[in-house]
């Protein structure tokens, strides 16, 4: 049985104070109200990671993620943040290849592959995002598009390495738009991804790897999505900024 993961991506939202309040509310609610074995991840802005890590403390069920990381170890890369910097403030997870990073910051497949390598080398768990834009879905090329994204940035990994990666399928047309993929659309793509992993690394890996759905997940659609056999949780943007909404999703997992 794969452990479910619910990861909140705060994006570029909240001041330090607001972030601490949000994290405290979620941590307390998880402690008081969640008795299932769900992994919660808080993906806060870089400036809040240290304080959020401190609030999380040694919690087994709540972890902290960065929203990006440099592929370089150190050096003259002004404005960048390295894996070891993240580790030094208690971060255990990192989102890599979010569609906003691909689109607005021109992150390439090659660069994403290097970021995955850097994260794994430094013992950070990558949450690797993939997903098709609307025009690709309309042309019915969404499966090939996502398969290519995985091939380009993950297929160089060994079995031991891929086992440490979490994949997030996020159809671009569903992110922040209020349009959610239907549970059938999500299940179909997650199954395709799992089959692709099976044909590259074998059934054992495919059965163990976690594949999250992301795209306008809300308390009222989370259960149906996460009840699908190949959907192992959610990567949640907007709804992760309200502790009650985020809790509603966590409880659906
Ligand atoms: C995201 O940014 O990863 C995301 C899924 O956003 P939203 O839930 O707001 O669609």
Keywords:
8-stranded parallel β-barrel; globular; alpha/beta; binds phosphoenolpyruvate; 12 helices
Characterise the protein shown here.
- It is a single chain.
- The protein is of the alpha/beta class.
- It has twelve helices and eight strands.
- The longest helix has 19 residues, at 183-201.
- Bound molecules: phosphoenolpyruvate.
- Phosphoenolpyruvate binds next to strand 8.
Mean pLDDT: 97
Largest sheet: 8 strands, parallel, barrel
Helix content: 40-55%
Distance between the termini: 13 Å
Helix vs. strand class? alpha/beta
> How many individual β-strands?
8
CA radius of gyration is 17 Å
Strand sequence of the main sheet, in spatial order? 1-2-3-4-5-6-7-8
Give the ordered list of helices and strands.
EHEHEHEHHEHHHEHHEHEH
Tally of alpha and pi helices: 12
Sequence stretches where pLDDT stays below 50 over 5 or more residues: none
The percent range for strand residues is: 5-15%
Shape: globular
């Amino acid at each position: 049985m794969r452990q479910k993961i619910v990861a909140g991506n705060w994006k570029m939202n909240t001041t330090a104070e607001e972030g601490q309040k949000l994290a405290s509310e979620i941590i307390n609610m998880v402690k008081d109200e969640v008795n299932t074995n769900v992994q919660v991840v808080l993906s806060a802005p870089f400036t809040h990671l240290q304080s959020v890590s401190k609030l999380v403390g040694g919690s087994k069920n709540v972890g902290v993620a960065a929203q990006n990381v440099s592929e370089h170890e150190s050096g003259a890369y002004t404005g960048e943040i390295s894996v070891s910097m993240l580790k030094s403030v208690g971060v255990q997870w990192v989102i890599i290849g979010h569609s906003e990073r691909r689109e607005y910051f021109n992150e390439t497949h090659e660069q994403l592959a290097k970021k995955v390598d850097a994260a794994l080398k430094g013992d950070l768990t990558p949450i690797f995002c993939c997903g098709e834009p609307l025009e690709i879905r309309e042309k019915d090329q969404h499966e090939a598009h996502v398969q290519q994204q995985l091939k380009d940035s993950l297929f160089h990994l060994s079995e031991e390495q891929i086992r440490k990666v979490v994949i997030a399928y996020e159809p671009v047309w569903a992110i922040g738009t209020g349009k959610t993929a239907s549970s059938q659309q999500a299940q179909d793509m997650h199954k395709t991804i799992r089959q692709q992993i099976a044909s590259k690394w074998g059934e054992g890996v495919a059965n163990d790897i976690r594949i999250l759905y992301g795209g306008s997940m809300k308390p009222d659609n989370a259960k149906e999505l996460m009840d699908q056999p190949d959907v192992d949780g959610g990567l949640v943007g907007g709804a992760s900024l309200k502790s009650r909404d985020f809790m509603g999703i966590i409880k659906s997992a």
